[in-house]
Design a protein that fits this description.
The chain is of the alpha+beta class and about 375 residues long. It is built from 4 helices and 14 strands. It has 2 domains: about 210 residues, no CATH class; about 100 residues. The strands form 3 sheets. Strands 3-4-7-6-5-8 form a 6-stranded antiparallel β-barrel. The longest helix is centred in the first third of the chain and has 54 residues. The N and C termini lie far apart (about 130 Å).
């Protein structure tokens, strides 16, 4: 006997309650994933912002420290006090009061030529014979360059003249070589203190030296709207773009870094009115220092504080007591902020020795 077993196929499905529970679980999982993604994105964005900030500050420190080491290159010893000039906490249109530093030296194009004679209200300088043959530059390299004319050694004049080269006198026989300059000074370029054009007697420069003028100024544009500057002109960014650190070389502005909150300098050397041969520790710039005191500066401390352009989004608003990672710190003689503003900072400091002043070696080889 054969028996046939039949089974009844019954349709199965999900109840409304099961669907609601499943949807809730999926929603919680999706929301958790979304939270993790958003937080990861915030952290990634913040870290990229901080990395760019660090790169800006490091680039600024590198360029400033390198140039400061060359302050005074080519200047005679008696003009060492004019190698640099600072401003401590200059007033700006903003709330920041950054420092400013100006240096002069034969930095990029080393050249020191002996002047045989100047005449025509310093519009022509005749050099020692065969001077150009001792230099690596073609005649075209000198044109439109800014020259610095220094008095002869032992001259009672402690001044210098800035002139723009418009013609090179280079006879084939190497005799009576020299330069013709544009009348007057060089508009838009001024020398550090102690290097004013005060040698009214041209004879003071006969037997002196001539070098390319390399005048550099490091300053912070706090607001992006410096009075008298035009955005897009002579390298100036402007347009309300503040927090840009500039190096101005012979009147042209080079932006070195952005997102800079403050720039500070301090100076170390035998800065007493009467020298005692000992360095006195780092001090802020003192406008009452004499050229002799400035000439005894041996080190410059450079401090650049960067600030993230945006508030950090990946942090909570409850920092550990006493640990203010998102508050402006005190730098040199500038005050710290009293409250957190949730912007991340990066402070970098470097000490640069003034090689030419410290060793008392000026790259002339002839003085």
């Amino acid at each position: 006997m054969t028996s046939t077993r039949t089974s009844k196929a019954s349709g199965t499905g999900y109840s409304l309650i099961e669907l609601m529970i499943g949807s809730t679980i999926m929603g919680v999982m999706f929301a958790g994933t979304l939270v993790i993604y958003v937080q990861s994105h915030k952290i990634s964005t913040d870290q990229m912002q901080f990395l760019e900030l660090q790169q800006d500050v490091r680039a600024a420190i590198f360029h400033i420290a390198r140039d400061v080491r060359m302050a005074g290159a080519g200047l005679p010893e008696e003009l060492a006090g004019a190698a640099l000039e600072g401003v401590d906490n200059e007033a700006t249109d903003g709330t920041e009061t950054p420092d400013r530093l100006r240096i002069v030296g034969d930095i990029e194009d080393p050249m020191v030529l002996r002047i045989s004679e100047v005449y025509g209200s310093t519009t022509t300088a005749v050099l020692e014979n065969f001077s150009f043959e001792r230099e690596p530059y073609p005649d075209s390299h000198y044109l439109e360059k800014t020259a610095l004319l220094l008095p002869r050694r032992g001259s009672p004049c402690r001044g210098a003249a800035l002139r723009r080269i418009v013609q090179v006198l280079h006879p084939p026989d190497g005799l009576n070589e020299g330069f013709v300059f544009a009348p007057g000074g060089v508009p838009g370029i001024s020398l550090p203190g102690g290097l004013a054009d005060v040698c009214l007697d041209e004879d003071y420069r006969n037997g002196g030296t001539l070098l390319f003028a390399d005048i550099r100024e490091y300053w912070l544009d706090v607001t992006g709207n410096v009075p008298g500057f035009t955005a897009g002109q002579d390298g100036y960014v402007g347009g309300g773009k503040g927090g840009v650190l500039y190096m101005t070389r012979n009147g042209f502005h080079y932006p070195l870094a952005q997102n800079v909150e403050t720039l500070q300098f301090q100076y170390d050397g035998d800065l007493d009115a009467e020298p005692d041969g000992r360095q006195d520790g780092f001090r802020d710039w003192n406008g009452a220092w004499t050229p002799d005191q400035i000439g005894r500066i041996r080190q410059v401390r450079i401090m650049v504080l960067g600030r993230s352009p945006d508030v950090f989004a990946s942090i909570g608003k409850t920092p550990v007591a006493g640990q203010h990672l998102y508050r402006r710190p005190a730098v040199a003689n500038t005050a710290a902020y009293a409250a957190d503003d949730w912007h991340r900072r990066f402070l970098m400091e470097s000490t640069s020795g003034l090689r030419n002043l410290s060793l008392n070696i000026y790259n002339t080889g002839i003085r």
